Input
Amino acid sequence: MRITALGGLGEVGRNMTVFEHAGRLLIVDCGVLFPEEHQPGIDVILPDFTSLRDRLDDIDAIVLTHGHEDHIGGVPYLLKERADIPIIGSELTLAFITAKLKEFRITPKTIQVAAGERRTAGGFDLEFVAVNHSIPDGLAVAIRTRAGLVLHTGDFKMDQFPLDDRITDLRAFARLGEEGVDLFLTDSTNAEVPGFTMSERDLTPAIDKVFASSPRRIIVSSFASHVHRIQQVLDAAHANGRKVAFVGRSMVRNMGIARDLGYLNIPKGLVVDFRKIQSMPDHKITLICTGSQGEPMAALARMANGDHQIQVGEGDTVLLASSLIPGNENAIYGIINKLIDLGANIVHKGNAKVHVSGHASAGELVYCYNIVRPKNVMPVHGESKHLHANAELARRTGVPAENVVVVSDGVTVDLVKGRARVSGKVPAGLVYVDGQTIGTATEDTLAERRLLGDGGVVTVVALLDPKTNQPAEPLEFLTKGFVHDDHTFDGASVAVSKALKHATPDQVDDIGALEKIIVEAVSSYLRRTYRREPAVMAVVVDA
Ligand SMILES: [Zn+2]
Output
């Protein structure tokens, strides 16, 4: 069996692992990664499907472990390449992906499974195991082939008192361990965190306190998929005589799905329409919206900017009931400060116990290794430091060091005769979705955008005399975002004249080459003289 992670190794997001056996492929998860500040204008980042492109017909199925964006967000883009790949997942996961695919006008071929079920997908014998996570209905998957037994945890933790009483099925983990797990792929996100992840139930007092003590409106921001946390908010609102409205398309859609399928228990009359709640007294109002990661277009950011129907004011309470994904810190702190300036009281995991992670800490991972006793381990889901911390835990429980493979995206690992070894590499670059384009924006595009953002742009329009190859009229400098005065470009014009004198006959005949000479002369003049690096463009016109 060959195992290739096309995402999720060396980053938190775009999780995707490809399993290949006897010429057939099984994909586990296909998620997106969210862009950071140094990736301006990018909507989401996908795994690189290059290595799958001429093998689409070999794919037997996509297994989705749970409904988080970083595990399902890439599916619409993969299905654009082949629409009838069967998607296997639990009830809630399939409901979330089906709703998402509807926005892409794709009707998927789905196969619903439940924890404890066993079924085949082409050449793969699959068994699904309940795992507990920050979204309901998560599954680990055991994959049996003639090459051996592989167990992939997906995202998981071992909350012993979860809100839905559905704990990670360690008895199944133990049974699979007895059978002999040849390769164990485990969630590394919290491998650096010592001890055990706190129970979701332990948040109840802190959330209750917010509801009991807030004088005016309470605005809760969370992930649109965080059904458990939203249940806690609903319960607290109900207990304190408040009404609730969901705000924002993804929040309304997902909570509707969760309620219809019975994953969210909403007392009668508690949830009202957003328009209706606005006429109620402030101390009766709870609003639940997205934007807890500082996403600029989400409701919370727009409220902070005064750009939303909901005007945050003195005495309102904003509860950030979710994690802070690395890379989003600046954006979210900016929003917190703006909300405080508007007079709101902010409750977040930094000043109250209103969030626990959805991932297993080191203590839970070590338990798993001791229960499963895998022959080989491949840490997944995390930045390098998380993968290496997880690998160390595996080794400490006695997995031989040479059987713990820490690899990055695209590196192929072969499981042969019970041993996992690195065997090669396939393309696994970042694929940027930018508006309607997929993979068209490149690292160069982003470098240009950063340059524009930092230094602005200078366009030089040059009317050249073909005989002398010198400007027939003074050069024209057009700028955007580049601060200058009447004389800033005087020296630049001299530099351009000088550079044009040195042009070779070949260059004189080639407008592109002349433009390049001008760009270089102006760029280097501005850099030398003002220590400024705008993006420079040149347009040459024959006089
Ligand atoms: Zn997850």
Summary: Residues 66, 68, 71, 133, 155, 358 surround zinc ion (CB under 6 Å). The longest helix spans residues 511-530. The first strand starts at residue 2 and ends at 7. The mean pLDDT is 94.
